[in-house]
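Hey, I'm writing a tutorial for new members on how sequence and structure tokens pair up, and I'd like a real worked example in the thread rather than a made-up one. If someone can provide the structure for the chain below, I'll link this post from the tutorial.
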Amino acid sequence: MISGGLHEPMRMIIVPFMKRTLLTGLATTLLLAAGSAPAGSAPAGAESATLNVVTAESVYGNIVSQLGGSHVSVTSILSDPNADPHLYEPGTSNALAVAKANVVIQNGLGYDSFMSRLESASPNSHRNVLTIADVLGIHGNDANPHLWYDVPALSQIAGAIARALERADPANTAGYRQGLARFVASLSPLRREVAALKRRFAGDPVAYTEPVPGYLLAAADIRNVAPESFTRAIEDGSEPSPAAVAQMTGLATGHKIKVLLYNSQTVSPITARIRSAAQKAGIPIVGVTETLPPSQTFQQWQLAQATALYAALAR
């Protein structure tokens, strides 16, 4: 969510050209690779028992690793916690990983639309592609794409991933089902924290700079009162109207919210200004991110954010 300034018009002209150039290069590379490693096939020899899985987001990559253990080799494309996922453009290494993948897992809802281009560049009818938005039946241009924050749906998401692994590697079905059982059981602390949030703070007003934690707030029945005209503009990388900025700022300066949830991964001068206003007003701030920190498991990451929200609301 970086505002463009004087160079923004040039970026809008150059990026489409870059995408066409990238796709041409990827297609050439994949054609050369196809002769030695057919798309979707497992490597020969000792590695043939390992399932090649590509996930668009490291969030799902971590879940796959927990479910599959030694049976899977996971490549996650969006994995940099300091990068803006909305501005990501794939490279040749990403294309080759998708070309060799037995299973591909993507979020959908336009969040990782580059995956369709990578898959089209190396067609393979035997590749298992799982789209989490389809699993949950969530569609539409206005849908919140941050599906991994939907705590009540995590068992359904993990179950769909486990079944995708089973379809591609039926010989290790028992292992994948055991991994699924362990993962679902490990969600208990996170579920308890969400339940505690709901018991104590249901109905309390908060605001987020982007709808990243929207599903978490919904599960805890906590009200987001940030104007959609502000949050959607920030998520789309555009500049909110002065009226939307004034309304958002007023929530903090007027003490109309108990907490500001701040996307610390995609910072702009406008969101920094809102954060500063909240700090000056004494409003607690909870940072949230879109990408899994490399030192944490999915469960640890989500639990830490939910716990931080509880502590902030308790102030």
